[in-house]
Amino acid sequence: MTVPIVLASVAVILVLAVGGWTTTVGTWYGDLRKPPWNPPNWVFGPAWTVILALAAWSGVSAWTNATDEPGRVLILTLFGINVVLHMLWSPLFFGLKRPDWALIEVPFLWLSIAALMHAVGRYSTLAEWLLLPYLLWVTFALCLNLRIVQLNRPFGKRV
Fold first, then answer.
1. Residue 57: count of CB within 10 angstroms of its CB
2. For residue range 112-159, what is the model confidence (pLDDT) as tens digits?
3. What are the boundaries of each domain within the chain?
4. What phi, psi does 39 have (nearest 5°)?
5. Fewer CB atoms near the end CB (10 Å): N or C, the chain?
């Protein structure tokens, strides 16, 4: 049981570190028009920390309850896909300054969370519920991303 907890914790720390490193909130982001319901910048770090900690807990719970090798492979594969999709969004939005490209990517992230919920739910109802805040936050992020694109497009010619 200790090994899955350590691995999940390390994965969350790495994802948070990469997310922080690839998210530069500078004047470009500050100058974007945003909807009035856009949260203050300080909310995102704590929100992602809690959400990813819950996702790690979900993974450990599902892994512990999955006694078959194909189930464990599926869980690891889906979490791996999710991590890749999760880590793509910030470089697209902030690094390349392309909220429009990030908007194209975020439905794939959403689908990866839904697939994770379905897969881990076979082994642990708790694991499935622990991913709900992640799905809801990414749904909110998708709506926010869409509104930012609508308020600020086009992006291709900006420097």
1. 18
2. 999 999 999 999 999 999 999 999 999 999 999 999 999 998 887 654
3. 2-152
4. -65, 155
5. C
DSSP per-residue letters across 91-122: IIIIIS--HHHHHHHHHHHHHHHHHHHHHHHT
pTM: 0.87
Write out pLDDT tens, residues 60-92.
Answer: 899 889 989 999 999 989 999 999 999 899 999
* Topology given in CATH for the domain delimited by 2-152: Ferritin (1.20.1260)
CA-to-CA separations, 72 to 5, 54, 60, 67, in angstroms, rounded: 15, 18, 10, 8
Cα separation, 56 vs 5, in Å, equals: 8
Q: Can you read off the two tokens belonging to residue 29?
A: 């982001």
